Protein: Transforming growth factor beta
Organism: Leptobrachium leishanense
Amino acid sequence: MGDRWIWFVLLGLHFLQEAMSMSTCKTVDMEQVKKRRIEAIRGQILSKLKLTKAPDVESENMTVPEDIISIYNSTVDIIQENSERLEHLHNEEEYYGKEVQKIKMNINRDSNKGKGGYKLTFNASQVWKTVQNAPLLHQAELRMFRKKNDGIDFGMEWRVELYRAQANNSFRYLDSKFVLARREEWLSFDVTETVKDWVEHQEKTGVFKLDLACSCENGNEIEKLQIEGFGSTRGDLGGLGQQNPYMPYLLITYIPANRMTSGQNSRRKRAVDEEYCRTNTGSNCCVKPLYINFRKDLGWKWIHEPKGYDANYCLGNCPFIWSMDTQYSRVLSLYNQNNPGASISPCCVPDALDPLPIIYYVGRQARVEKLSNMVVKSCQCS
């Protein structure tokens, strides 16, 4: 009887040793985790701006123009609104398959108080009849083809701005991007929240406005930006324009209503967010706070706003899917041999991330950029 007991103890220790050796999600030093996260952020920002190194700073005393500050503040507000509205839907919508539809646009040249621009109009009722419910809309992307303009100096750069129409013939800024003047390309803007508003209020017509950012008083500047689908004398091409494959269009991705009618409320949220992790002192997977100061942590002076941001990171234990008393140790050992870089146990990874808006200078020109997936909002075991 004693020999059998010793045999079971040795067998249990054997299983324990093999199981522990197969997990690659090992405990790491907290300071090393933070250092690696900081270096990853350095590379992310430069990569997203297509920079090989941090730009040189001509002067730290340059005053940021008011229009740039206004764009930056609007971008911050929009990101905050989007984050609050989408947070509770993130995990549910990622589970279900989605359909994609293309909505072609009716286009007209717009002249608003003497300032030129392209007004893009679409049938909003077609969208809400298709989607049926605003939360089911996963993404809406506005796309248009910009033609090459050989009459512009090579290397010249523009900032293209997108607005949405509001009541009383006013327009609200949505987004902007820099484009090379002589390049022929598709322009794309994320307009998900705007289209959700149209679906929620069952609007009949939705309107966007595209314009060039220009400090001059010359209203003809927009003529230099040539968008496919606009004629030289009139913007509405009627039936002919609708057959043009380069006409601007809205690409909507949504979850069909019949896929969300059963079991939606019973599905539990898989990710853990900042609010939960602030009150949870356990060792399981959670969002950990990490504030990045651009000057102190990265040694950068070229980003004017913000001075830093809450990047955060994911850390913590995840349940091991095979317990010690299972009989699959040999199978797991073979898996570990064939996949030495893979983790058998789940790891704590980011689940939802928010963008980061910044103001920075290239030479003496101030820019506003929105860097995607920079702020960790929730984590999950995967």
Notes: The two ends are 44 Å apart (CA to CA). Residues 33-65+268-381 form a domain with the Cystine Knot Cytokines, subunit B fold (CATH 2.10.90.10).
